[in-house]
């Protein structure tokens, strides 16, 4: 097989909202979104069908606002709106590179984005458009990781790629524990049993129940999305099967 041939026909790429901040501590760093869009455009040119879900942690997280006294459901709706802003910013950056895209929102806002319609999303992908799923699941008390797992299953993606701030799944949070050890491969049940918080349990359960492999890798290292799509070993593979020793 050619070195640059994608090993997947259709992928769901989940992008961390927080990674868009770059070195800042809020919002979108223009340089970062341009670099990410360039990388996605290059991978798309390999011929892989790409759907994207983007988080909102660079703008608003419901759970943080709720801890400061805001009603949780209201805060979560605000978080979902934050993901729409990120989706529109990414759409612009991709279209500047000649990639045709569609944003589909789980919350109806027809002046801004198409509503989420599964069959329509699949049709866009078949036509070579990148589909960006915005507003998460449209439901409070969920996350964009769960939205990513759900949409991946709905559109029949072969894999869920979680591009995030850390370079894989560790046996404890690497941002808090300098001695944390990284897995090359880990099973869904281990992630759940050991309560590894790289993704929320709802997303992991969804992936497990539908045999959807998940690859967790760093979005901060340029070229990683390409490497994963052509089958190079990057980050951590989370899948079913026997637990590692
Ligand atoms: N066992 C673990 N292995 C790896 N990362 C972990 C683990 N436990 C907790 N984490 C944390 O998970 C975080 C990645 O997931 P998180 O859901 O916060 O971000 P995201 O979904 O990529 O971004 P956003 O919510 O901004 O879209 C990292 O910041 C990391 O510190
Ligand atoms: O289905 C969903 C998805 C997201 N939210 C809210 O949005 C923010 C941002 O999403 P992240 O996954 O944290 O990046 C999240 O904190 C929730 O408040 C939601 O309610 N439902």
Structure description:
A 9-stranded mixed beta sheet has the order 4-3-5-2-1-6-8-9-7, sandwiched between helices. It has helices spanning 30-44, 62-67, 72-95, 118-126, 144-155, 188-193, 201-209, 224-229, and strands at residues 10-15, 49-54, 101-105, 114-115, 130-134, 159-164, 185-187, 214-218, 236-239. With 245 residues, it is an alpha/beta fold. The protein starts with 9 loop residues before the first strand and ends in a 6-residue tail after the last strand. The chain contains 8 helices and 9 strands. It is globular and about 45 Å long. The chain is 36% helix and 17% strand. The ligand O=c1ccn([C@@H]2O[C@H](COP(=O)(O)O)[C@@H](O)[C@H]2O)c(=O)[nH]1 binds at residues 17, 55-57, 61-63, 75-76, 79-80, 82-83, 136-137, 139-140, 142-147.
Residue ranges: pLDDT <50 for 5 or more in a row? none
Helix content: 25-40%
Largest beta-sheet characterization? 9 strands, mixed
CATH homologous superfamily title? Acetylglutamate kinase-like
The CATH top-level class label = Alpha Beta
Task: Please give the order of strands in the largest beta sheet.
Answer: 4-3-5-2-1-6-8-9-7
Question: How many β-strand runs?
Answer: 9
Helix and strand string, N-terminal first? Answer: EHEHHEEHEHEEHHEHE
Main location: cytoplasm
Family: Belongs to the UMP kinase family.
Catalytic activity: UMP + ATP = UDP + ADP
Organism: Desulfacinum hydrothermale DSM 13146
């Amino acid at each position: 097989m050619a070195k640059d041939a994608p090993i997947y026909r259709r992928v769901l790429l989940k992008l961390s909202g927080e990674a868009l901040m770059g070195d800042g501590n809020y919002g979108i760093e223009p340089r970062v979104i341009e670099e990410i869009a360039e990388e996605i455009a290059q991978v798309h040119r390999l011929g892989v069908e790409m759907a994207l879900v983007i988080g909102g942690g660079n703008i608003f997280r419901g759970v943080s606002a709720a801890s400061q006294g805001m009603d949780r459901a209201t805060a979560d709706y605000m978080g979902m709106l934050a993901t729409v802003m990120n989706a529109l910013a990414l759409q612009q950056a991709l279209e500047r590179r000649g990639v045709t895209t569609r944003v589909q929102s789980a919350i109806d806002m027809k002046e801004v984005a198409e509503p989420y319609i599964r069959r329509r999303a699949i049709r866009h992908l078949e036509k070579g458009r990148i589909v960006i799923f915005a507003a998460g699941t449209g439901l409070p008390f969920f996350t964009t990781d769960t939205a990513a797992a759900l949409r991946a299953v709905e559109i029949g993606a072969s894999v869920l790629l979680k591009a995030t701030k850390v370079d894989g799944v560790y046996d404890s949070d690497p941002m808090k524990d300098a001695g944390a050890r990284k897995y090359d491969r880990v099973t869904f049940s281990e992630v759940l049993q050991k309560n590894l918080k790289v993704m929320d349990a709802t997303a992991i359960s969804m992936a497990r129940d539908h045999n959807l492999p998940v690859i967790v890798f760093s979005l901060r290292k340029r070229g990683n999305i390409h490497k994963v799509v052509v089958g190079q070993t990057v980050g951590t593979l989370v899948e079913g099967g026997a637990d590692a020793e």
